[in-house]
Amino acid sequence: MGPQGLLPLLLMLLDCWASVSAQTRATPPVTTEGLNSTQAARTTPRPALSLRPPGTPKASVPSSGPRPTPVTDVAALCVCDLTPAQCDVNCCCDPDCSSMDFSVFSACSVPIVMGDSQFCSQKAAIYSLNFTANPPQRVFKLVNRINPSIFCIHITNYKPALSFINPEVPDENNFDKLMKKSDGFALSSESEISFATQSDIPATAKYKNSLCFSTSKDAAECLSHASGDTEWIGWYGARLQTSDSFLRFPSPLMSSLCTDDNPAAFLVNQAVKCTRRINLEQCEEIEALGMAYYSSPKILRVPGLRTKAEIPITVQSVLIQSLNKTLTRLEDSLVLNQTLVEAGDVKICTNVVLEVKYSLTYTEAGEIAQAGLALLLGTVSGPVVPLEQKFEIHFIQQNTKPVPLSGNPGYVVGLPLAAGFQPQKGSGIIQTTNRFGQLTILRSTAEQDCLAVEGIRTPVLFGYDMQSGCKLRLPKAITCQLAVQKVKSLLKGQGFPDYVAPFGNSQAQDVLDWVPVHFITQASHMKDSCQLPVALVIEVKWTKYGSLLNPQAKIVNVTASLLSSSFPETNSGNERTVLISTAVAFVDASAPAEAGFRAQPTIDARLPFDFFFPFV
C-alpha cells in the first residue's frame, strides 16, 4: 500500500477518533440562597463534534448527538413573577426577591419549572425551602429530568418548531405566491410528472389499495421494497396515470370555479359540481368544454407502463340537451366538437359538455381493466354564463356483482324490507338471495281461490299499506287440526322471518342491530271450539333517524298478529268457505321535532394541548 492509499485511511481513523473523543462539561451548580456558598456538582462527559478534513462530505448527525439550544431557559423562566420590580409572595423564582424575602416564605408556589414535557430528557429548575436553616433559605437546583413515557421526543432537528411563528395570512397581494409555495392543493401539468422507463418497471407493478399517501410530484416515490424483490405498488388515492400525464377530474378548489389540474384518484368515488366563467365567443377554443377532452386520454393499466398497457376510454352513451331541457340520445358515439352558432343577434354554443361520468373497472390485482364514459352535451347561450358542470367517477371491481340494497342507510319508499331468520343462537342472519321474497304476504287474484295462488306471494314494500285475501274451500271431511296447519302455511308462507333489518343497508352479521318480529296469536272468546286462523296483520313501526335536513327511515318494531276464529260448521252441502286475509300497516312513530340549538362541544383532552405541535 503506497502513500496515496495511506492518506484516506489516516483521515478515516482521525475522524473516528474525533467522533468518540469526549470533553468535560460542568453541570450547573446547586445553589442555596442565604448565608451559604455555592457547591459545584460532579461533571459528566459529553461527546465532541466530529472533525473532518476540508473537501470531505459531511457525515450525518447521529440521533445521540448534540441537540439544538432550547429557546426557553428554565433557569430564567418564572411563571409566578406577576408584578414587575416587586417580590411576589411565595414565588421562589422571582429575581426581585432577596434572601430576607425567602426567609419568610411558607412554601414555593411553583416548585418546578421545566420546558416541553414531551422531550425524553430536559432541563428542570427545582425550587424548595430549607426550614432547618436559621433563617430559612431557598434551595435552587438545575437537573436533567428523564421522561418515563415511551412516546417522547428524543431529538429535535427542526429549530423553527421550538417557537411559535406568525402564519402569513393570504390576501389579494400574496395569494399567488402562497399557491406556488404550497403544492398540496392540486397536482399540476405534464412537465412535472416523471415516468420510469420500460426496463425500470418490474413485472409486479399495479395499482393497489395501500396506505401510501403522498403529495409529491414524483410518481415513483411510493415504491415498496419487499424482502427479496422490489414491487412498485400504487396506493389508495393515487392519481390515475395516462399515456401523457394523468386523468384529469375537474373539481372546485378554493371556490366554486373548476380546476382542471386535479387528478382522478384510484378507488376514490367522487361526484362534484363546479362552474366556469367562459366567454361565449371563445367557446370553441376552451378544451374543457369539448367531448374530446374527456374521451381521448388513454389510462395506463399499471402505473408507469405506457406500451401495450393503455386502456382507451369507451364512450358508452351521449345525451344531447336542448335549450328547453329536452334530452335526445345519440345512436353512435362520434366525437362532437363544440360549435359557435350565430342566429341574428343571438349567439349560442352547441355540443358543450355539461356532465361527465367515468366508470372504471379494476381487477383484484389492482390493474385498470376497462374505462367507460357517459356524457351530457348541451347548448349554452349568453344568459346562462357562467356554466355549471358535473363530474362523477366510480370504481367497480371486475367479476363482482353489486349487492342490491333497500336504502343507504335508511329505507327508501317502495323497496322491499330486508328480513331473515337466525338458525341458532350466536349465528348470523340468514337471508334468501331473492330480496323480494324475504318478507311476503298473500297475493290477491281475480279467482280469489287460496289453493290456486298457493306459493304466489307479494313482497312487503316499505311505506306501502297493503291488504290481500282469498277464499278457502274446506271439504266436509277435513278436520280442524288439518285446516289450521293449511291456513297457517297460506298466511305465513314458506320461511316466515324472525328478524327485520332496521336500515336498508344493515349487515347480516350485526344480529344485535336487527329488529325481532313479535308474533302474537289472538283467538276468539270461545275456548271450547277449535280456533282457525283467518288473518295475519303485520304492523311495522318506523321513525325518522338522523338530521332534520336529511332524515333516514329506521324500523324500530315489527309485530305480526295472527287472528283466529272458531271453526265454521257446515249447515248444508259438502264444503265450507273461509275468508283468509293478510294486511300490512306502516306506522310513523317519530317524535315531533323540537326547536333548539346544539350544545357547545366539550373537549375531554388527556394529552397536552400542544402534543402534536408543530404538525397540527
Automatic annotation (TrEMBL):
The gene is TCTN1. This is Tectonic-1 isoform X1. Keywords: Cilium biogenesis/degradation, Glycoprotein, Signal. Residues 27-68 are annotated as: Disordered. Residues 1-22 form the signal peptide. Belongs to the tectonic family. It comes from the Eukaryota. Residues 240-397, 407-588 form the Tectonic-1-3 domain. It comes from Zalophus californianus (California sealion). PANTHER family: TECTONIC FAMILY MEMBER (PTHR14611), TECTONIC-1 (PTHR14611:SF1). GO terms for cellular component: MKS complex. Part of the tectonic-like complex (also named B9 complex). GO terms for biological process: cilium assembly; protein localization to ciliary transition zone. InterPro entries: TCTN1-3, TCTN1-3_dom, TCTN1-3_N. Residues 27-42 have a biased composition (Polar residues). Residues 70-175 form the Tectonic-1-3 N-terminal domain.
